[in-house]
Amino acid sequence: MTGFGGLTAFRTGISLFALAFLALFLLYPLWMVMQASFQDEVTGHFTLAPYLKILSSRYYVASLDNSLIAGALSMVCASAIGVPLAFCLARVEMPGKSLLMTLASLPLVLPSFVGAYALVLLFGHAGVITTALRRIGLPVGDIYGMTGIVIVFTLTLYPYVLMPTLAGFKAIDISVEESARNLGASRWRVFRTVLLPIVVPSVLAGALLVFIETLENFGVPSVLAEDRPFLSLDIFKLFAGESDANPAAAGALSVFLVGITVAVLLLQRHYLAKRRFATGARRTPSLIPLPRPWRLLATAYSWGVVLLSLLPFGAVLVISFLQFRGPVLSWQLGLGNYATLLHGSYQPLYNTGILATVAALAATVLGAPIGYVLVRHRSKLSTALDVVAIVPFAVSGTVLGIGMIIAFNSGWLVLTGGWLILVLAYVVRKLPFSIRSASAIVHQIDPSLEEASINLGVSPLKTFATLTVPMMAGGLMGGMVLVWVTVAAELSSTIVLYSSRWATMTVLMFQALEGTAPGQSAAAASILILFTAVPLLLVYRFLRRQDGSLL
Fold this sequence. Notes:
single chain; MetI-like fold; 2 domains; 2 strands
C-alpha cells in the first residue's frame, strides 16, 4: 500500500509542479497582457478606451477582417487539398507512398515565411517568373496581398488537415462502406455521403489548427501584406512602437486575438458534442482496386500537391547561389551570398542551434512526466493540467512574448535581455507537442509493468526514470525533434524577445528582408531549411528502422 500511496503522491507532485510552471510562465504573462489592455497608460486606472478606440477605427476593423478572411480561406483551401490527399494515401495503391508521407510532413517544420519570401523572389514586383513573363508580353500581377498570403498558408499548413484525416480514413470500419455499396451506391456517393461525414472530427481538428496558425503567424504577413493590415503584424508594430511599459493598444489587440481562437475552439467542441461519428471499427479498410487511369490520376495528384508545397523551398535553395546586383537577380552562380551573410560572425547560427537544443531538451523533460500523468492519473488536478496544457495552441507567439516582457521586465524576476526568456517562451509554446508525443506512447505501455516494479519495492520516481522513460524513448525522440525544428524556425516570439546578443537565423533573415538584401535573405533561408529538414529526415529514418526491427 505504501508503494502505491507513494505513486499517487508522485503523480500529484508532477501535476502541481507542471501547473505552477504553466501558471508562472503562461497564465501570468497572459494575465498581464489582459490587465494592460484595461489600464489607462497615464493614470493606470481601469478603462475601456483601448477597446473602444480599436472598434471605432476603420484601420483596426480592417486588420481584424483581413486576419479572419485569410484564416477562413486558408482553412478551406488546406482542407480542399488535404482531404483528397489523405484519402489517396489511405486507400489507393501508389508508388513511393512512404517517401510521399515523409515529404508531406516537411512543410509543417519548415519556416512558413521562407515560403512567403520564395514567392516574392519568383512572383514579386521584380520576381524571376514575373520579369520573364513581362518580357514576352504577358502582363501579370504580383503575389502580394491576400492571394499570396492564402497560397503560402495553404501550401505550408495543409499537413495539419492531412495527418488526422489520414488516420480517420484508416480507422473507418470497412463494413460501413460495404453496406453502402451493397445498397447500390457508387464509390463517389459512398465517399461523399458516408466516409466524409465520418471523418468530419478529424478534418475539423486539422482545419482548426490551420485557422489558429494563420491568425498568430507573424512572418508571412510581414513579407506579403504590404500596406494591408493584419492583426498579428499590428500587435507587433504597436508594441515595438510604444516605449511605455504599459502597451494598452497592443494588449487590447492581443486579447482580441486570443478571444477569437478560444471562441473557435469552443464552437468546434460544441459542434462535435452534438453529433456521433463512431463506427465501432473492427476491420480496417483495404486498398481500393482502381482502374489504371484513375490510379495514375490519384498518384499524379498526390505527388503534385506535395512537390508544389515544397517548390518554394527548392526555389530559395537555388536562388541563394545566384548573385544579385542590388535587387536585380543575375544568373551567375557563386557563394557570395553565404560569405556576406556569415562574414565575421556565426553567432546567429550558433544561437539558433543552442537555443533550439536547450528548449527541445527542456520541453521533453517537462512534457514526458506531464504526458504520463495525463494518461495514468485521472483527478481534478490532472484535468485542470490537461486544460491548461492546451492553452499554448491558442496563444500567438507575439502575444506570449509581449506578456513575458511586461511580466519579467522588472520586479522580483527579471528575465528580459537574456537567453533564458527565449527558452522559456519556446518551451511554453511547444510543450503541447512533447505532451502529446509522450501521452500517445504511454497509452501503449502496459501499466502492470510499473505496478510490478513498485510491488518489488522500487520507488515510483525510480520506476518512471528507469522503466517507463526508456519504453517511451521512441515517442519522446519524435516529439523532441519536432520541438527542435519548430523552435529553429520560430519568428513570432523571437522577434519580440531577442536581444542583439541572442539574434537567431530567423531574425537575421527578417532583418535582411527589411534591409532589402535578397541574396543574404535567400542564403539565411537556405541555412534554415537545411537546419530544420536534415535532422527531421535523419530521425524519421532512424525511427522507421527501429519499427522495422521490432516486426
